[in-house]
Every structure is written in structure tokens, then in C-alpha cells.
Amino acid sequence: MSNRPMFSAIGGFFTAFGSAAAASSAVQAGRKPRDRDLRNLGIDPAAFDRIGRF
């Protein structure tokens, strides 16, 4: 029995959590998040660029 799927899921969680933290920090600072972080979160970077401010 392999532990690979379990470790892969844990690694994916940390990747998503890190990307969420980085994207949140960038938005709070008024910057655009990195494309890689947006893709890790399932957000199209081009769609993110079209988001306007209220």
C-alpha cells in the first residue's frame, strides 16, 4: 500500500493555501497576484485582470 496519494493531497493543500495567502497579500497591498498563484486557485489570470473596483 502506497502513501503517495495521501502525501500528494497534503502537498496540494499546502500549495493552495500558500497561493491563497500570497494572492490575498498582493490584493491587500494593491498589487496583482502572480499568475501562478491565481492558476493554483483555479482563477483565470485574464479574467482577474477584467475585475474592476467599485
Beta-strand share of residues: under 5%
Structural class comes to mainly alpha
- Approximate helicity band: 55-70%
The H/E string reads HHH
Largest sheet: none
Quick structural summary:
Helices cover 67% and strands 0% of the residues. It contains 3 helices and no strands. The longest helix is centred in the first third of the chain and has 25 residues, at 4-28.
Question: How do the strands and helices of this protein lay out in sequence?
Answer:
Blueprint: H1 4-28, H2 35-40, H3 45-49
Please supply descriptive tags for the structure shown above:
3 helices, elongated, 54 residues, mainly alpha
Give an overview of the whole structure.
With 54 residues, the protein is mainly α. The chain is built from three helices and no strands. It is elongated, with a radius of gyration of 14 Å.
